[in-house]
Backbone:
């Protein structure tokens, strides 16, 4: 039996966390021995849908006609749609209705965290909703001191202190606080990896980007190799997002062993703890104090504990859990029961019991 990973719309979401999640699903299933396909085949058991575009609805309806199950990934919520693109706050209630309709077409809904699962339950979705991390490739993203030199050479950084962040250049991702942090710490170099078409951004964000302080660099969207260099070569990962359903870049940073500072928001509750594996703060003053403490090494090093968190969400671990969901929802058959090894003692005991009944 195969799982059809629907890739329609990947050109639209390919550079986002959703695009990364699609690639992760393929790898997860491959690593746990479940065959995948990118088209309908005679032995397709179910289709994975990751986007909420109109073509995804058509694919779900096509699965119904074929008698196949639909696994819809709930990456998007109304809450993380807000403060993203021009007009998103106004459209957010309509977006909630649309994604509720889409997810309702699934036989199973999978969403990355307990937090996002709680949000979807509040939308009135009646289908089974499972919380399952998007995962991280811990074999690829891992601490590598050798990458520090290549990262710094690439951007001409020398031995400057460096703080990085990753994501779309939108308000929800904490861009404004990141720029203010850079403004308050002119002796530190700040780099933001990621890009959003300026035509999609509200004027406030475009103005903020134009007025960014001189110690901020915008390398734009980079491939995973350069991103790994950045995680391994920078001194702090400051991800100040206001809303997430998980945050794949957080997992990548933790896997690479970079000290991580996050905004203290509900999505991290239960798996990331302030002062234990990351630093979670609420406002710009605390962000500055924490980043300064990390750079001056006056705060404890939490990177080993952060790496342990990433390992619990490795692609192998996520693949095993995903396979269990398939079995529970009867998408895949249960594991075969292996016959017990032959035992002369047990055979003799069975013969003895048989003779005793004569």
Residues:
């Amino acid at each position: 039996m195969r799982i059809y990973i629907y890739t329609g719309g990947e050109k639209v979401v390919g550079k986002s966390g959703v695009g990364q999640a699609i690639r992760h699903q393929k790898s997860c299933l491959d690593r746990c021995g479940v065959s995948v396909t990118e088209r309908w085949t005679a032995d397709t058991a179910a289709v994975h849908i990751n986007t909420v575009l109109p073509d995804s609805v058509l694919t779900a309806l096509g699965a119904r006609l074929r008698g196949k199950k639909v696994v819809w990934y709930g990456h998007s919520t109304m809450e993380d749609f807000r403060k993203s693109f021009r007009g998103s706050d106004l459209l957010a209630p309509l977006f909630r209705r649309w994604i509720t309709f889409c997810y309702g077409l699934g036989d199973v809904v999978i969403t990355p965290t307990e937090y996002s699962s709680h949000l979807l339950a509040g939308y009135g979705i009646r289908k089974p909703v499972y919380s399952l991390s998007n995962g991280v490739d811990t074999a690829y993203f891992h601490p590598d001191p050798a990458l520090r030199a290549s990262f710094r050479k690439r951007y001409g950084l020398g031995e400057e202190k460096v703080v990085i962040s990753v994501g779309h250049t939108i308000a929800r991702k904490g861009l404004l606080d990141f720029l203010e942090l850079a403004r308050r710490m002119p002796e530190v170099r700040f780099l933001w990896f990621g890009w959003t078409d300026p035509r999609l951004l509200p004027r406030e964000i475009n103005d903020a980007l134009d007025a960014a302080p001189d110690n901020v660099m915008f390398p734009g969207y980079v491939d995973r190799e350069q991103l790994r260099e950045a995680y391994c070569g920078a001194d702090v990962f400051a991800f100040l997002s206001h809303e997430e359903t998980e945050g794949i870049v957080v997992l990548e940073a933790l896997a690479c062993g970079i000290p991580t500072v996050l905004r203290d928001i509900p999505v991290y509750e239960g798996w990331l703890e302030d002062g234990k594996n990351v630093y979670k703060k609420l406002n710009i003053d605390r962000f500055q104090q924490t980043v300064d403490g990390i750079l001056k090494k006056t705060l404890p090093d939490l990177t080993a504990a952060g790496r342990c968190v990433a390992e619990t969400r490795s692609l192998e671990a996520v693949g095993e859990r995903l396979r269990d969901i398939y079995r529970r929802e009867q998408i895949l058959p249960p594991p075969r029961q292996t016959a017990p090894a032959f035992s002369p003692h047990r055979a003799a005991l069975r013969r003895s019991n048989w003779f005793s009944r004569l």
